[in-house]
């Protein structure tokens, strides 16, 4: 039984369905220790035969037997293992990976062996030393000569200690001195228990080996053993191999990114703009919302809400709020108290023959904040606190001097017999309040005003005081959930006062933020398309590299991981850069807004930052799906011959 046997190998290529027979029944046997040269006319099918032996091409008829075992039944996994473990390729054009150093080029093969990292490195250095490249291991392929490149290729082919070395015109691109040295190296390999098969056009090279096989018209027409086969050991040692690990793929991806640093920095920069704009929009939204809330809540107490009857569909409108409503609210969890109040529009005040129309007047309640009292005191019974605007109508120069003065308060009302009446009461000005509060009187004052005029009085809102800000929403939701029994299950109450405006305003701001972030999202889309394009170009650019890796026994899945890892890092680095830009912009804008309005307008939260990173990585990975699949599916022979 021969070590390697070819039995009746036929191979045809098809161009436009036309058959081109290249190999027409090849029968050959090889042993370890042989240095076989295959000679033949150009285009005679030598490379085709090497690809079949090397496990790069399984589309042939006939049998290739290794130690008597046919390769025909190999599945994809076994083919990969065969290329890794049994075959070492040396190509005419060296086929080194340009973005990896000399050492790393050899390490690619070694990383697929089960040696420890330390042993792998030691072996790579030892092999490079053996081929005379000790001083050059950290150089890149474009920094060494052709002869040196071929030595790297030899070191790489030997890395996983394969039993068969296939050298396709290894000296074709070299001068005579380098040719001699490479031949000597191949000699050594054959002496070292291996089968060396080399394709050559040179008789001189062929004469160097132990055997010359001549091909003519797709068949072997001559097979001469010109020297003794080198002696071999009975049990050659085999270096067990494994698939390229995930870590090695990731490292290779990073090395490729580093090699094309400028280009990658530009891509990362471009992609980061999209993430940055989305981040900034979200941050700005949070900031602006915070600012508006801050402004509003500096006017009203955020832990109190005003509740009124929901009046829209009732005729006549029922606006009365009763003590039982208040009691109901007081029982809600987290509510401290609930008090009746009264709000009226159409009131007028008169002082010294000057009239001032009041937009509204309301009874003192817990939504008002102590600091809203600008001057003087809160009103007691028989008193009123007026706004600065009203006070200025009566005393333009010194509105504060209105404090302590008596003014007449008028309010229109309706008697029981539907007869309109203007209720009137003299009130002492107790103080000046902020405009947002409107003039304030006490509940008792307004109640007695109605009583004195025989007009029925009924409160029209309840102020609900809640224990802390965080519970306001929950309480509001409970109040809004009460259904009106006589109005087909519609909501009975509505939140009024500034609190309700804040709610609506926040909804609008949130909406605006989403719209803006959506628009910014378009730049995200552009980033994604850019990454797709870049990866597609990268796959095309690296076609040869993919072919080399496949020839070395790297699996399809690992090729896919290689591109996916790169996309992952592009996404990750873009989002990190976007975060840096985002925080810089936040810092800049906030510095300005802090000094202008005493508030930080941009608030990029940790949640937004995480969202930015996740979305960037996800987009990049999605963008990588198609290109990485394309790379993995490439035919190794086509990839290797890609120009
Ligand atoms: N993918 C392909 N599709 C169609 N024809 C092909 C393909 N690859 C090779 N051929 C043809 O098959 C024949 C054998 O090619 P091959 O490369 O094996 O020859 P070779 O003996 O190695 O030639 P050379 O010594 O010039 O390198 C050639 O005529 C070539 O044009």
Automatic annotation (TrEMBL):
Keyword Cell membrane attached: yes
Annotated TM spans: 265-284, 511-538, 559-585, 597-625
Organism from which the protein derives: Secundilactobacillus malefermentans
Signal peptide span: none
SMART domains: AAA (SM00382)
InterPro entries cross-referenced by the UniProt entry: AAA+_ATPase (IPR003593), ABC3_permease_C (IPR003838), ABC_transporter-like_ATP-bd (IPR003439), ABC_transporter-like_CS (IPR017871), MacB-like_ATP-bd (IPR017911), MacB_PCD (IPR025857), P-loop_NTPase (IPR027417)
Protein name: ABC transporter domain-containing protein
Keyword 4Fe-4S: no
């Amino acid at each position: 039984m021969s070590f390697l046997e070819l039995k009746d190998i036929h191979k045809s290529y098809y161009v436009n369905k036309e058959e081109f027979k290249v190999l027409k029944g090849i029968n050959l046997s090889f042993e370890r220790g042989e240095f076989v040269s295959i000679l033949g006319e150009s285009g005679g099918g030598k490379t085709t035969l090497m690809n079949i032996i090397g496990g790069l091409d399984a589309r042939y008829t006939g049998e290739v037997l290794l130690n008597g075992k046919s390769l025909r039944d190999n599945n994809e996994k076994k083919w990969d293992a065969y290329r890794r473990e049994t075959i070492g390729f040396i190509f005419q054009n060296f086929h080194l990976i340009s973005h990896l150093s000399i050492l790393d080029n050899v390490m690619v093969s070694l990383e697929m062996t089960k040696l420890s990292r330390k042993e792998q490195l030691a072996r790579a250095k030892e092999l490079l030393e053996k081929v005379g490249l000790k001083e050059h291991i950290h150089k890149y392929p474009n920094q060494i000569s052709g002869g040196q490149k071929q030595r790297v290729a030899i070191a790489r082919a030997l890395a996983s200690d394969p039993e068969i070395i296939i050298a396709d015109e290894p000296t074709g691109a070299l001068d005579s001195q380098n040719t001699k040295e490479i031949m000597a190296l191949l000699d050594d390999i054959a002496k070292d228990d291996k089968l060396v098969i080399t394709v050559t056009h040179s008789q001189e090279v062929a004469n160097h080996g132990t055997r010359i096989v001549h091909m003519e018209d797709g068949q072997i027409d001559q097979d001469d053993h010109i020297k003794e086969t080198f002696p071999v050991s009975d049990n050659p040692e085999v270096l067990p191999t494994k698939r390229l690990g995930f870590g090695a793929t990731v490292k290779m991806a990073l090395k490729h990114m580093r090699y094309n640093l400028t280009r990658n920095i530009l891509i990362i920069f471009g992609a980061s703009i999209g993430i940055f704009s989305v981040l900034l929009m979200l941050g700005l939204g949070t900031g602006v919302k915070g600012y508006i809330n801050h402004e509003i809540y500096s006017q009203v107490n955020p832990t109190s809400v005003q509740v009124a009857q929901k009046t829209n569909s009732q005729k006549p409108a029922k606006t009365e709020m009763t003590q039982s409503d208040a009691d109901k609210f007081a029982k809600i969890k987290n509510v401290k108290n609930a008090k009746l109040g009264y709000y009226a529009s159409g009131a007028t005040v008169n002082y010294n023959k000057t009239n001032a129309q009041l937009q509204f007047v309301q009874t003192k309640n817990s939504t008002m904040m102590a600091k809203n009292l600008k001057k003087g005191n809160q009103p007691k019974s028989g008193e009123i606190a007026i706004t600065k605007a009203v006070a200025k109508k009566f005393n333009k120069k010194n509105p504060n001097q209105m404090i302590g003065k008596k003014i007449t308060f008028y309010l229109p009302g309706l008697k029981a017999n539907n007869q309109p009446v203007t209720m009137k009461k003299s009130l002492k000005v107790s103080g000046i309040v902020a405009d947002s509060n409107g003039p304030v009187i006490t509940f008792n004052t307004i109640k007695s005003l109605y009583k004195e005029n025989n007009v029925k009085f009924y409160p029209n809102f309840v102020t609900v005081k809640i224990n802390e800000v965080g519970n306001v929403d929950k309480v509001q939701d409970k109040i809004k959930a009460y259904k009106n029994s006589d109005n087909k299950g519609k909501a009975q109450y509505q939140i009024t006062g500034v609190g309700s405006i804040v709610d609506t305003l926040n909804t609008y701001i949130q909406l605006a933020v989403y719209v803006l972030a959506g628009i910014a999202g378009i730049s995200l889309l552009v980033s994604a398309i850019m990454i797709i394009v870049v990866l597609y170009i990268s796959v095309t650019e690296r076609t040869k590299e993919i072919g080399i890796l496949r020839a070395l026994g790297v699996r399809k899945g690992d090729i896919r991981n290689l591109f996916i890892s790169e996309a992952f890092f592009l996404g990750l680095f873009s989002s990190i850069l976007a975060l840096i830009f985002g925080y810089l912009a936040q810092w800049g804008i906030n510095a300005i807004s802090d000094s202008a309005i005493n508030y930080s307008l941009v608030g990029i939260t940790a949640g937004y930052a995480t969202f930015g990173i996740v979305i960037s990585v996800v987009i990049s990975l999605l963008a990588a799906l198609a290109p990485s699949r394309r790379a993995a599916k490439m035919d190794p022979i086509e990839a290797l011959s890609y120009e």
